[in-house]
Amino acid sequence: MEDFPEVESCVECSAKTLHNISEMFYYAQKAVLHPTSPLYIMEEQDLTPACKKSLVRIFKICDIDGDNLLNDYELNLFQRRCFNTPLQPQILDEVKVVIQKNIPDGIFHDAVTLKGFLFLHCLFIQRGRNETTWAVLRRFGYNEQLEMCKDYLRPTLKIPPGSSTELSHRGQQFLTALFERYDKDGDGALSPEEHKMIFSTCPSAPWSYSTDIRKSCPTNDQGWVTLHGWMCRLTLMTLIDVLKTLEYLAYLGFNV
Ligand SMILES: [Ca+2]
Ligand SMILES: [Ca+2]
Question: Which first-to-last residue range defines the signal peptide (predicted)?
Fold first, then answer.
């Protein structure tokens, strides 16, 4: 196996004595459904850059209060979103102990840091539980190449003739909360830096700050976009290009 790093697992089996047959199928299926190589570099014992990048984005989306830590409440929401079950308090404590033991700065104020989150996924893979990390990545829209799936970004939407499109109440709530999370200084407006950060989970911003949103939407005295301006621009985008809104909601981590 050392000579062939592309071989993920090796199991001795026999069709004659039926020795290890079910194990053989289990590992073969696993190699196809939850491959290691897109996630992990064996020689370096570390996650691949693409996997890290995806997990960093997921971490940011799950960090609801924006303090760069995942507290118990945020971890529970994450767990529910990915696995549809709540995290047992005892298991949560055990996970934190394991992280703390291995990397001391993986836990801060009883919450998981980004380092701790990445370490946890490294550990899953090292323990042969690739399916856990894959489940997380797939839930957040990633395909086998660790790119966002097209149908996740642009789901089919039939708009009857004569109808227009607008943000739902849930969509408005999500985008308002997002604004509040990234308005770090709490002045009720997005500075250019805050505007840049709000789209840090997206490939790029959907519009230019200086020549588009700032010029066309309500701003404060400093000329920075207010919550009202932010919602106006999104309402307009939803009206004229709803697929673009859907795409951005996916990048921003709206839970569907
Ligand atoms: Ca947090
Ligand atoms: Ca601000």
Answer: none
